[in-house]
Amino acid sequence: MAGYVFLAIFLLLSGYYFTVGNLLSGNGDIRTFFSSIIMVVMFLIPMLTMRTFAEERKMGTDQLLMASPVPMGRVVLGKYLAVLAVFGAGLFVTVSYVVILAVFGQFDGMVTAGNYVGILAAASAFIAVGLFLSALTGNQVVAGVLTYSCLMGLWLIGAADGYLSGPLKTLAEALSLGDKFREFAMGIFSVSSVVYYLTIAVLFLFLTTLFLEARRSGWNRFFLASGVLAVGIAVLSNTAAAAGTRNWGWRLDMTADKLYRISDTSEEVVRGCRCR
Fold first, then answer.
1. How does DSSP assign 35-47, residue by residue?
2. Considering only CA atoms, which of 117, 93, 121 is closest in space to residue 187?
3. 3-state DSSP call for residue 189?
4. Total Cβ atoms within 10 A of residue 88
5. What is the mean pLDDT of residues 35-42?
6. Which of 271, 124, 138 is nearest to 204 (CA)?
7. How many CB atoms lie within 10 A of CB 156?
8. Cα Rg for the chain, rounded, in angstroms?
């Protein structure tokens, strides 16, 4: 039932943003649509994830999972893929919007593909966070509120970096969900942004599995050490990806006119300048 409600609301709001932001305004740029729809995704994902584990814990049916011989990793992955499939079904419908713009407006294939990759990567991370928070509580409303609060906090933290300095500013930039997706929306494919979303997805899926396995067999130092190690690997992965993007240019400008890339002529002029 939650899936049908999600699809209805998602398609209603996505259709509204496309109609107002593209059709009525005469704007043929699909990036406008994706910049608007990401907030809808972040708002609606908790609706899909809040019942995944919380409802079973409330009804007591989670004991069947605890007693079954199936590894918890498979249970978590199955629920994750189920939620992702429902979201993917709704996102697939938006391809019709791209077709409309391609026929009657402008179409940049690389930018469109990059935006779809970005929104899928972001949704994958959102769903993983929602599953983890749903596993922590037996109240689906609490799980939904926690998920939305967590995602909104990570989204808004990027707006605070202008008021911060030093390590706090660096940390805010590294954790910002909004800054990472903004690159995709602009038509920039950044390795660090992809790694960021994927590590969040993998990390929280692992932590969910770890938490459920601990509930099944009892807490011990192994689970705690595994959790700390997973967080450490995620931090190192993002640090390496950010360094590569910053120092070696692991970023691709997918816009047709290369709007965010310095031209060869400009690079030659810069090299020829002598700083005094």
1. HHHHHHHHHHHHH
2. 117
3. strand
4. 12
5. 87
6. 124
7. 13
8. 21
What gap in Å lies between CA 76 and CA 135, rounded to an integer? 10
Cβ neighbours around 236 below 10 Å, total: 11
Residue 117 binned pLDDT confidence (cut-offs 50, 70, 90): confident
**How far apart, in whole angstroms, are the C-alpha atoms of residue 230 and residue 218?**
19
Query: What does the buried/exposed string (b/e) look like for 247-261 if buried means 16 or more CB atoms within 10 Å of the residue's CB?
Result: eeebbebbbeeeeee
pLDDT category at 139 given cuts 50, 70, 90 is: confident
CA dist., res. 36 & res. 62, Å (int): 37
Number of residues in the chain: 276
Which residue reads 């990401």 in tokens?
Answer: 38
Contact 251, 195 (CB under 8 A): no
Q: Which residues of 6-43 are buried (b: 16+ CB within 10 A; e: fewer)?
A: bbeebeebbeebbeebbbeeebbbbbbbbbbbbebbbe
